[in-house]
Amino acid sequence: MGIERRSNAGARPGPGVGPAGTATMRAAVQHRYGPPSGLECSDVERPLPGPGDVLVQVGAASVHPGDYFVMTGEPYVARLAFGLRRPRHGIPGRDLAGVVAAVGSDVTAFGIGDKVFGWNTAGALAEYACVPADNLVSVPADVSVTDAAATPTSGMTALQALRDIAKVRPGQAVLVTGASGGVGSFAVQIAKAFGAEVTGVCSTGNIDLVRSLGADHVVDYTRTDFTHTEKRYDVILDNVEAQPLAAVRRVLTPTGTLIPNSGHGSRWLGPIGRIVRARVLSGFTRQQLKPFLSLGKRQDLLALTDLLTTGQVTPVIACTFPLHEAADALRHVGAGHTRGKVVITI
Asked: What is the C-alpha separation between 218 and 185, in angstroms, rounded?
């Protein structure tokens, strides 16, 4: 489902040897919080795997809104996890796919040359990355490195929201806002795989795409406000949160589940205030309002691998960028309304 491809013309040479004999690599490096313009492509020391780590020669890495928030350091509360004054990890990026270049002494699940994909705390936007072995699984035979890199965070978020939080069952009516986006495009396909009747909300230009993902119904938000329709939904995964909470609840069944999932909010606390309000309100209604924090889990990545292998899920790739244009990739994500996933090829 590729839409645009960017060439690697002008890319810098591969990893070499530094002046002290240490192996080096190219990486997108961030020295301070701020806009994408502060990201630079530099030669840095190649990491060495610890006992439980795998050194991955990265073939592709995807970026998403969370990477943009970490880069800018906003909301400020996020700095408690990523560094108060400057980023604790100088190389951004979580999701990656590539080939095993070396393994730590305790790793037995993978060998050199294996194709793997998964997630990391940071460091994906580089030619090599050290990743805990438990955060990786094998790339299915018929899945490209680009599609594999696009899957982990967005795919796990959609899977956990629908399977674990909403507990979607066959025949239920599920509405997904931002249905053409990173999480939304996975959510439409996963909800269909679970046997739900799926409605996707998107803009006019993405209607055909959302239908191709398997949506039974598509609402063009530029023409129709879904909160003013007669349809009622058992589950709403709201990846946009453009409508007031009370308005969205009107189209939720009396015992339905609403999952707010935009990640946006105030400059200081981000979505925390909205999450607290939703939790408090849940105590006074039969409707379930369940904002959640997605966590990386290897078993969930294996579940996504099965969906990729059977063709029930296919990542939507909006565009690809070479590593030396990583700043442009993050700028594209930060602008919002990204169609599917943005991937950096390395």
From this structure: 13
Whole-prediction pTM? 0.88
Which pLDDT score is estimated for 273? 56
pLDDT for residue 82 is more than 50: yes
- The domain spans of the chain are 24-150+316-345, 153-289
Distance between CA atoms of residues 224 and 184, nearest Å: 19
Rounded to 5 degrees, what angle do the CA atoms 113, 117, 123 make? 100
The per-residue b/e assignment along 199-211, b for 16 or more CB within 10 angstroms, e otherwise, is: bbbbbeebbebbb
Q: What is the DSSP letter of 12?
A: P
- How do residues 138-152 score in pLDDT, each as one tens digit? 999 999 999 999 999
Tens digits of per-residue pLDDT, 142-179?
999 999 999 999 999 999 999 999 999 999 999 999 99
Q: Are the C-beta atoms of residues 307 and 193 closer than 8 Å to each other?
A: yes
Residue 340 CA to residue 298 CA, distance in Å, equals 23
Across the strands, what pairs with 173?
Answer: 197
Sign (positive/negative) of CA torsion 161, 167, 171, 175? negative
33 band by pLDDT with thresholds 50, 70 and 90: confident
pLDDT tops 60 at residue 125: yes
Strand pairing report for 115-119 and 95-103? antiparallel
Which residue has tokens 């599920």? 174
Model confidence band, residue 293 (pLDDT cutoffs 50, 70, 90)? confident
* H-helix segments, 43-132: 65-72, 79-82
Whole-number pLDDT of residue 271: 52
How does DSSP assign 199-222, residue by residue? EEEE-GGGHHHHHHTT-SEEEETT
Q: How far apart are CA 30 and CA 34, in angstroms?
A: 9
Question: Could you confirm whether domain 24-150+316-345 is CATH 3.30.70.80?
Answer: no
Q: Which CATH superfamily is domain 153-289 in?
A: NAD(P)-binding Rossmann-like Domain (3.40.50.720)
43 neighbors 25 (Cβ within 8 angstroms): yes
